[in-house]
C-alpha cells in the first residue's frame, strides 16, 4: 500500500475542472548541472498540427477522463511538493488509489523551495512532482535550481498555473517529463505518471476481470466461465480463467478438463512463475481460451501467502490480454486486495434479501476504495425460479444504485445439461437468450458497445416486422 506523509486538514473543495493533460516524452534530469545540458534533443513541435494541447486548453476544450488510460504504476518512490493545498489534497487522495498501491508516495507543501531544502543532503526519488505558481521566467529559474540537486534518473512532472506554449516548449527542452496545467484531478495525475512508466512500445498489460458472488450458489463461477469463453470467441484473443477456489473450484469440470498441475502449483512457489512455467501450467480449452485450474480436492492444506495471489495474477496479466478471475465466496485480506485491484468487477446476485444485503455491502466498499473506477457490473441471476418469492430486478438494482448489466432467467435444464456435458451455454444452446446475454456482457467489459446486440421482443418474427412497418 502507498505510504503517505502528508495529512491535510479536511476542507471543502470545489469540483475540479476536467482539462487535457499536456503529454511530453520522458527525459531524465541529471545531477549537478542544468537539466538541458544532459537532456535529449527537444521534440519538434508541429506548427501545422491541428491539435495543439495548450491551444485546446486555452479554448476550453474538455477532454473526458477515462480510467482506462491510467494503468497500474510500478513500485517507485514519488515525492510531491505543492504550493496549493487543494493540489496537495488531490495528490494525497490519488495516493490511495489502486493504481498507486505499489508506489511509495509522500506529499509536502512548500513547492520548489521545500524540494531544494529536502534534497540538499538526501537522494532524489524516482519521480518528483513540483507545483509552481510562478510565471514563465520564475518557473524556469526554479527548475534550473532544482536540477542542481537532482540525481541522474529522476523524472520530473511540473504542475503549473500558466497556460503558455513557449513555457511548455522550454520545459520540454530542459528535460521535464510532463507539464500539467492546474487545477488537477486524481485521474489526470495518475494518467501522467502512468504514461511515464508504461512503455507505449511494449505490449499492454492485460486487463483483470474479477467475478464474485454476493452469496454462495448464485452462479458467479458459471457467469465467469461463460463470459470468458464468449470473450475469447468474439475477440479471437487470448483469455485465461484463473480459478482461485482451490478446494472447491469447478472450472475444470465446466470445461471437461482434469489437469495434473494448475494454479495451486503457481501459488505455492510464485517466485518461480514465468512465461515458460505459466504455459506448462495452463490447460488449453479452445484456441484462445486457457484454464488456470484449481485442484478441487481436500487432501491438502492450502496455506498460501496472501501476496502470492497478487503476484500470480500479475504474471498472468503480463502474458495475456484478458484474465477472468473466478473469486471464491470468502472474505480474506488477499481476496479483498484482489477484488479492489481488478480493472473491472462483476457481482452476481440472486434476487433475495440476503443477496441484497451482501451486494450492498460490497458495492459500498468498492465505491469507497475505487472512487476513480467504473462501478461494478451487476448480474441478477436465476430470476423467475418457480415457487420462490423474489425481489423484482428493478427494485433490487435501484437499492444498489446500479443498472443491471443483465438479468438472467432461471433455466436449470439448459445450464445443468451444458455443465454436465462440459460445455458453455453458447455451445450447448447457441440461440438461447442466456448465450446472447453472456456475449453482450463480455463485450461491455471490454468496452465494445457497438457490437452489443440488444434483446429482441418476445413477439414472433412476423409481428416484429409488422410492428417496424407500422
What is the secondary structure topology, with strand pairs?
Layout: H1 53-58, E1 77-82, H2 85-94, E2 104-109, H3 111-119, E3 127-132, H4 136-147, E4 155-160, H5 165-173, E5 178-181, H6 186-197, E6 207-213, H7 220-235, E7 239-243, H8 251-254, H9 263-268, H10 275-281, E8 283-284, E9 289-292, H11 306-319, E10 322-326, H12 333-341, E11 344-349, H13 353-369, E12 377-383, H14 393-400, E13 404-409, H15 412-420, H16 425-428, H17 433-445, H18 461-469
Parallel strand pairs: 1-2, 1-3, 3-4, 4-5, 6-10, 6-11, 7-9, 7-10, 11-12, 12-13
Antiparallel strand pairs: 8-9
Describe the structure.
The chain is an alpha/beta fold. The protein has helices at residues 53-58, 85-94, 111-119, 136-147, 165-173, 186-197, 220-235, 251-254, 263-268, 275-281, 306-319, 333-341, 353-369, 393-400, 412-420, 425-428, 433-445, 461-469, and strands spanning 77-82, 104-109, 127-132, 155-160, 178-181, 207-213, 239-243, 283-284, 289-292, 322-326, 344-349, 377-383, 404-409. The termini are far apart. α3 packs parallel to α4 and α11 packs parallel to α12 (333-341). The chain folds into two domains: 35-197, Rossmann fold; 207-459, 3-Layer(aba) Sandwich (Rossmann fold), CATH 3.40.50.300. It is elongated and about 75 Å long.
Concise overview:
Helix content is 37%, strand content 15%. It contains 18 helices and 13 strands.
Low-confidence stretches: 1-63, 456-470
Q: What would CATH call the architecture of the largest domain?
A: 3-Layer(aba) Sandwich
Largest sheet: 8 strands, mixed
CATH fold call of the largest domain: Rossmann fold
Question: What would you call the structural class?
Answer: alpha/beta
- Order of strands in the sheet with the most strands? 8-9-7-10-6-11-12-13
Global outline: elongated
Question: How far from one another are the termini?
Answer: 60 Å
Amino acid at each position: 500500500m502507498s505510504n503517505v506523509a502528508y495529512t491535510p486538514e479536511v476542507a471543502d473543495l470545489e469540483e475540479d475542472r476536467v482539462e487535457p493533460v499536456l503529454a511530453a516524452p520522458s527525459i531524465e534530469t541529471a545531477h549537478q548541472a542544468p537539466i538541458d545540458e544532459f537532456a535529449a534533443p527537444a521534440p519538434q513541435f508541429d506548427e501545422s498540427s491541428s491539435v495543439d494541447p495548450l491551444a485546446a486548453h486555452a479554448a476550453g476544450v474538455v477532454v473526458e477522463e477515462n480510467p482506462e488510460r491510467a494503468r497500474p504504476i510500478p513500485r517507485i518512490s514519488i515525492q510531491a511538493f505543492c504550493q496549493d493545498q487543494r493540489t496537495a489534497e488531490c495528490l494525497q487522495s490519488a495516493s490511495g488509489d489502486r493504481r498507486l498501491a505499489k508506489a511509495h508516495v509522500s506529499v509536502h507543501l512548500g513547492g520548489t523551495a521545500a524540494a531544494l531544502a529536502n534534497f540538499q543532503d538526501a537522494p532524489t526519488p524516482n519521480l518528483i512532482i513540483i507545483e509552481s505558481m510562478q510565471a514563465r521566467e520564475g518557473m524556469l529559474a526554479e527548475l534550473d535550481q532544482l536540477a542542481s540537486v537532482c540525481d541522474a534518473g529522476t523524472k520530473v512532472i511540473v504542475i503549473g498555473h500558466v497556460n503558455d506554449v513557449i513555457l511548455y516548449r522550454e520545459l520540454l527542452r530542459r528535460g521535464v517529463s510532463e507539464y500539467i496545467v492546474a487545477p488537477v484531478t486524481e485521474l489526470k495525475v495518475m494518467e501522467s505518471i502512468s504514461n511515464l512508466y508504461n512503455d507505449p512500445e511494449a505490449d499492454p498489460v492485460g486487463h483483470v476481470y474479477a467475478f464474485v458472488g454476493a452469496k454462495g450458489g448464485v452462479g458467479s463461477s458459471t457467469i465467469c466461465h461463460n463470459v470468458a469463453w464468449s470473450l475469447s470467441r468474439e475477440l479471437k484473443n487470448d483469455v485465461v480463467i484463473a480459478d482461485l477456489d482451490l478446494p472447491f473450484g469447478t472450472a475444470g469440470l465446466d470445461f471437461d478438463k482434469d489437469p495434473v498441475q494448475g494454479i495451486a502449483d503457481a501459488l505455492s512457489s510464485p517466485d518461480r512463475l514465468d512465461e515458460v512455467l505459466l504455459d506448462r501450467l495452463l490447460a488449453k480449452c479452445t484456441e484462445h481460451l486457457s484454464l488456470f485450474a484449481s485442484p478441487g480436492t481436500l487432501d491438502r492444506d492450502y496455506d498460501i501467502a496472501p501476496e502470492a495471489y497478487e503476484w500470480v495474477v500479475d504474471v498472468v496479466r503480463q502474458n495475456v490480454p484478458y484474465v477472468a478471475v473466478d473469486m471464491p465466496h470468502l472474505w480474506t485480506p488477499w481476496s479483498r486486495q484482489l477484488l479492489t485491484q481488478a480493472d473491472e468487477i462483476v457481482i452476481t446476485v440472486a434476487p433475495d434479501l440476503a443477496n441484497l444485503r451482501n451486494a450492498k455491502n460490497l458495492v459500498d466498499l468498492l465505491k469507497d476504495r475505487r472512487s476513480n473506477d467504473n462501478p461494478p457490473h451487476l448480474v441478477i441471476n436465476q430470476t423467475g425460479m418457480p415457487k420462490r418469492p423474489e425481489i423484482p430486478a428493478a427494485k433490487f438494482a435501484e437499492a444498489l444504485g446500479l443498472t443491471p448489466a443483465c438479468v438472467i432467467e432461471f433455466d436449470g435444464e439448459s445450464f445443468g445439461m451444458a455443465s454436465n456435458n462440459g460445455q458453455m451455454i453458447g455451445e450447448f444452446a447457441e440461440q438461447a437468450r442466456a448465450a446472447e446475454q453472456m456475449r453482450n456482457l463480455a463485450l461491455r467489459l471490454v468496452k465494445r458497445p457497438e457490437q452489443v446486440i440488444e434483446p429482441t421482443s418476445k413477439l414472433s418474427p412476423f409481428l416484429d416486422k409488422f410492428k417496424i412497418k407500422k
